[in-house]
Amino acid sequence: MLKLFRFLKGYQALIALVMVLILLQSLAELYLPTLMSDIVDKGIVEGDHPYIWRVGGYMLLFTLAGTVVSILASLYASKVSSGFGHVVRGKVFSHVEKFSLQEFDQLGTASLITRTTNDITQVQQVLMMMLRMMVMAPMMCIGGIIMALSKDAELTLVLVVALPVLGGTIWLITSKGLPYFKAIQKKLDRLNLVLRERLTGIRVIRSFNRTESEKVRFTEANGDLTNTAIRVNQIMATLMPLMMLIMNLSSVAIVWFGGLRIDSGAMEVGDLIAFTQYAMQIMFSLLMFSMMFVMVPRASASAVRIDEVLHQEPVIHDGDTAAHSGKTVQTGIVEFDNVTYSYPGAERPAVERISFRAEPGKVTAIIGGTGSGKSTLINLVPRFFDVQSGSLRVDGVDVREWTQEQLRAAIALVPQKSVLFTGTVADNIRYGKDDASDEELRQAADTAQATDFITGMSDGFDSTIEQGGANVSGGQKQRLSIARALIRKPKVYLFDDSFSALDYKTDARLRAALRDETKESAVIIVAQRVSTVMDADQIIVLDEGQIAGIGTHKELLESSEVYREIVASQLSEEEIA
User: Of 471, 500, 541, 558, which is most buried by a Cβ count within 10 Å?
Assistant: First the structure.
C-alpha cells in the first residue's frame, strides 16, 4: 500500500498541516487530566471554589480548542484522501487505456472495474483514517505514558503488564482476519463478473429460459462472498469485547493499587484520577490502532490489486523504433508480408503466413468460415495485437514504427459488435471527428444510409441514444457506426462484418455509396455474405488461418474450392451464374 502513496506528491503541505493540527489536538487532550487532577487536589480538597472555576474555565477553553483543531484536521485529511483517490483513479484509467486486448483478457473487464472503483475507495478510506488515527494514536500513547509516569512511576507497572496483552490480542485477531480480507476482493470480482454477464446478456438468458440457472450462479457467488464476509466479521467482532475486557480489568487494577498507594500517602486522589484517564487514553490509542488493523488488511489487499494494474506493462507500446514522429500516413497502402499471429496459450496460430496488399481506391474483402482468422487480421492493422512474425506495413512502414496515435489517426474501424455511447445521434457520429460540421455530419449519415431513420426520430440528429444504443435496432447501430467511421475520412477503412444486420437492399445501396466516398482510401471488408464481397477488387479466402485463395469473384469460382463451397451454400445456381 505504501507504493501507492507516491501519488500524494503535491499534498505534502496539507499533510504537514494535518500533522500539526493533530499534535495540537493531542496536546489539548493530554493536558485535560492534569487540570482535572489540580481541581481535585487543590480546589476540591482545599475548598478553593475560585480555583475550581478558573481551572474549569481553562478545561473548557482547551476542550473548545481541541474540538476546533479536530474539525480542521478532519477537513484537511478529507481533502488529502479525496485528492489521492482522484489522482489514483485517473492514473489507473489512463494506464488501462494503454492496454492491448491481451491485457483486458488477462485481467478481466469486471476485475478492472472493481479495482478502479471499490479497491481505490478502500485505500482512500484507510488513508483518511491513517492521517487521523495513525498519527494521533502514537502521540496519545507516548504522551499518555509520559504523563502517567509523571503522576506515579510505580503504578505504571500495571500498564507494563496490560499493554503487551492488549497488543498481542490485536495482532492475533487481525492476523487471523487478513487472509479473509484478501479473499473478499477476489470474490467481489467474481460477483461483479456474474452480475455484469447477467445484465448484459439478459436477452439471451430470457430467450433460452435460463433465468433460474443464472439465479443459481448469482446466489452461489453472492453466498460465497457473504459467507467470507460473515467469517471475517465474526473474527474481528471478538476484538472489541476482548479489548474492553482488558481495559476494564486494567482500570480495576489501577484503582486497586492506586488506592493502596493513596492509603500509604505516596499518591493523591487527583493524581489517581489523572493516571486512570491517561491509562484510558493510552489504551484507546491502541484501540485506534486496532480499528486501523481492521481496515488496513483489506485496503492492503486492494492496494496490491491496484498496483498490479499500474505495473502491468502493455504488450503493445510505442518503443524506440517509432522513428516517424511528426509524420502522418499519406496513402494508406496496407501490406501483409508473411504475417503470423497466435493468441496467448493457443495451440496453433490464429493466422499463419498471410501475404496480400490493400491499395487506396480498391476494396479488399476477406471471407471464410467461422474461426478462420478474419477478425484477427482486421485487429492486427490498428495494432490491437502485434504480429509475431512477418511484417505488417502501412505506407511501406512497419506498423510498429508508427506511434499508435499516428497509425490509428489514419484508420477508421467499424467493429463486428457495434458500440454506441450515451449522448445524441450527432455526438455518436462526431465521435469520429470532434470538429465535424453539420454538412459533414449529414453527408456521413447519407452515405451510411442512416438519414431516413435519424430524421424519423423525435429530435433528428439531436435525439438521445441510450446506454449501449438500447433504443435503436441492430441495423441502425451498424449504420451509425459506419457513419462515425465515414466522417473521419481516413486513409484506411476497416469493416469487420459491419453489414450483417442490414437487409440486402440497404447493404447494396450502402456499398454503392461507399465506392464514391472511399475513392482515395484503402478499404478492407470482413464479411460472411458472398453478396457483400463479390464486387470487391480482390477477395481473400481464409481457411483455418491460412489463405486458401486470392482473386476476384470470378477468378475464385474457378480456382478456389473453399470459395466455391461458401458461394454454393449461400447463392442459387442462377445467382452464381
Answer: 541
